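Backbone geometry:
***
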Amino acid sequence: MCGIIGILGKTQAVPRMMEALKRLEYRGYDSAGVATVADGRLDRRRAPGKLSALEAVLADSPLAGLSGIGHTRWATHGEPTEANAHPHMTDRIAIVHNGIIENFRPLKDELLATGVRFEGETDTEVVARLLTRYLNEGLAPRDAFRKTLGRLEGAFALCVLISGDDDLMFGAREGSPLVVGLGDGENYLGSDAMALAGLSNRLIYLEEGDWAELKRGGLQVYDAAGNPVTRPVTLSQVAATMVDKGNHRHFMQKEIFEQPTVVAQALGRYLDPNEGTVRLPDMPFELADIPKVTLVACGTSYYAAQVARYWIEKIARVPVEVDIASEFRYRDPVYQAGGLAIFISQSGETADTLAALRHAKAAGQRIAALVNVMGSTMAREADLVLPIHAGPEIGVASTKAFTCQLSVLAAFAIKLGVARGLVDRAREADYVSELEQTPKLMARVLHNDGKMAEIARQIADARDILFVGRGIQFPIAMEGALKLKEISYIHAEGYAAGELKHGPIALIDEKVPVIGLAPKDELIDKTVSNLQEIMARKGRVVLISDNAEHEDGLLARFPMPPAGDLVAPILYAIPVQLLAYYTAVEKGTDVDQPRNLAKSVTVE
């Protein structure tokens, strides 16, 4: 979601902040701004739209100062206008904020009653006006900031500059991540490691309720009770060069084509090909004792969880429950004693998933986090961390993180089967050998991407598109539909192929393309039968399959290499990603930063 950068530096802050904000564009945003303090005076520049609009403002009206804060905003309270863009500023402070202040309305009413005037509609401005009131009452900046934090409810990360002091910055974290970067005579704040790439690789991840006072020569972190605390320094592996598109047109395209490499890297951490075994991180509990697995996630990660249910139940014969994180807590789930709850999140900061994790942890469940960011909140709060090793994913629509999630979940399912005595030594070696083929097979699929570009041109004019699959391909159908609507804005739905006759087939006519996922497995005949029902009603069918026997009446067929049950869903994720990508390119949409979407959703 929104992005934050703060710099207490030795050189001009604005150029460095703009570079940091460009690295944060992947998070999704609809306005941007920067503020500095120079010669004791605060000043700012803001603009709705992309960073290019802010750059134009700065070109006309430059902004000096060695200390500054910057922000990319994804609108929640108030439209994406200049008045609502961050930083918010008074004569005493400038502030940027990620998250939501849930009690902003009573606080605003309280301030209005004292004669305070507001310029915009955001909840953030309430924080700015409240902090300013406490400063005007004579409180020292540190005391005023702490008192302000005590009045706030919700999920937020804050970064604040104080008028009159260019060697002072405050930050706070409650339910939304904030990272301190340590430099040589400089210090920084950022919403994630990517914000600080190129500035610092020595990071301190603030914990829940922490707030920090930064100066160029030092840092003090306080916990929620106001006690000074020391948090560990982590060395970041994120480099500024990771945000380079290379020779690709979009980040999404680059990340699709990175998948053979990153999946190989992920599997390399979990498979021992010499021994033919799966290796997991050290377990704080016995896998063999787990009576039930609960998988919780949002969006694309939720579909990865749906695939994992097939694997875990088939291989390890453990009952699996899959839940959407935003619904999980509110239905008051029934837990089984000793159960394992796995929470899947690319960022490790997804607000709904994190809240669900804490709910399960409070109920005594064993907690595992499947994440791409090892320093994330979910990783720190879990009993077991299963990193996916996908590397930074810049495109808002997830691609390589999804296939890396699937790869790690496949390895976990095998290991769970081994622990329960249902997978013997020979079968484990077979599974490992099968998974080892995944990167090579992915490369074969990608080599045929020109064919998918042709198919995309044939369907780009559609208003509605259906994706269908059976068995383990059903979640991939749903993921394909999600990808398409995320970046092309075409309405798309994923269905279990056998469910079409129970209602959705009423949607079929000659204007509705249907994407059929049909690997040559035990369900192929049933899937083909369902697709024939569609073609009989003039539906335009695109078949994604390794089966070349059923081509009559198709709009197109995208050929796939043969693959087993472990590899097939990972493999079939690629053509639906390519279809979404090339369709979006054909329609001219913003592939990497689709409208209304954010990469990291840190509010409910």
Summary: The domain at 3-243 is CATH 3.60.20.10 (Glutamine Phosphoribosylpyrophosphate, subunit 1, domain 1). The mean pLDDT is 89.
